[in-house]
Amino acid sequence: MRLLGRRDHTRFALRVKLLRKGPSQAVEEVLNRLEEEGLLNDQAVALQRALNRRQRGLWGDRRIVQDLKRLGIDARMIPGVLEQVNREKKEEQSLQEAIEMWVGRSGRPQAAPQLKKLFDRCVRLGYVPDLVRKQLAPYFQKINWED
Q1: What is the distance of C-alpha 83 from the center of its chain?
Q2: Residue 51: CA count within 13 A, CB half-sphere
């Protein structure tokens, strides 16, 4: 209960922590009881985590999926979570915010190396390269490719 009092955990994460303290059969019984009482809910944890990453971290779908899998969220649950996240804040909108933030800090890309840095940053945030190219199209048109 102390672990759940500090923050929400996925079933997987809580199992890992509890297995350090007791046998697996007892751990599974505790986890089942917590789920029955509504104190352990992977769906809610996944949704909250994904929304947080989209809104604060400006993460794309690919990186959110990786993060949820790392947390031990059931892969069958992830598409539904992404659908809900995209209803709250579309991936394209988040990408545009990430681009605007980068441009605000580093300035408008004037040369190919700067544009590549911006492109690479967006891909690392979990956006599909095709979507990044589409959003960066205005910048590609204004780059001096001769330099």
Answers
A1: 13
A2: 12
Q: What is the mean pLDDT of residues 84-110?
A: 95
How far is residue 124's CA from residue 59's CA, in Å, rounded to a whole number?
A: 9
13-66 per-position pLDDT tens digit: 777 777 777 777 777 787 778 677 767 788 888 999 999 999 999 999 999 999
CA contacts within 13 A on the Cβ side of 6:
4
Distance, C-alpha 62 to centroid of its chain:
7
Of 52, 76, 71, residue with least CA distance to 13: 71
**Torsion angle of the four alpha carbons 110, 116, 121, 122, in this order, in degrees rounded to the nearest 10:** 90
Query: Domain spans of the chain?
Result: 1-40, 41-89, 91-142
